[in-house]
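Folds abound. A case:
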Amino acid sequence: MLQRLIALFAVAFFVAACETASQTSTDSAGDTTASSTSSTASASGSSSTASTASSGSASSGSAAGSAGGSTTSPADTLATIGNTVYFSYDSAALDGNSKGSLFRQAAFLNANPTLTVTIEGHCDERGTREYNLALGERRAAAARDYLLAQGVDPARIKVISYGKERPAMAGSNEESWAKNRRAATVLN
């Protein structure tokens, strides 16, 4: 019985270690404003399923690109240039870092006219569900409007708000909240 318990803890430890590495690689591939929170994300050991899945494909795609000489997928390229922008508390205003990331996204989308995207608006856990859904919608719309101003066809962009329902980082502290106030661009 004791051996089974030790084996169970060992498996849980290794799975947690894998998740922590995935979260860190997502942060390094994303926007530069998230880099200060990557160490906290690693320490807390929590990450969303989407972050884990996207970072796993991003790291395997880059390894395949360097080893086999094959091209990277559009999703990998989008993750590399930064697919997430972050917002201040109770705000849908884009800062300089966000505009830079969105400018790179627009250049990528203009170079790949067949791709379509969905921009997901997210909020931290504070505020009511209804308020956060509306704020997430404004954040996604702000990102969409910036892409449209850069010449991306409006028919290629959808927006959706998840409010506080899909946090990137669990926790009730300023670093978690900052990580969750975001708009994420996802290829369809």
In short: The two ends are 48 Å apart (CA to CA).
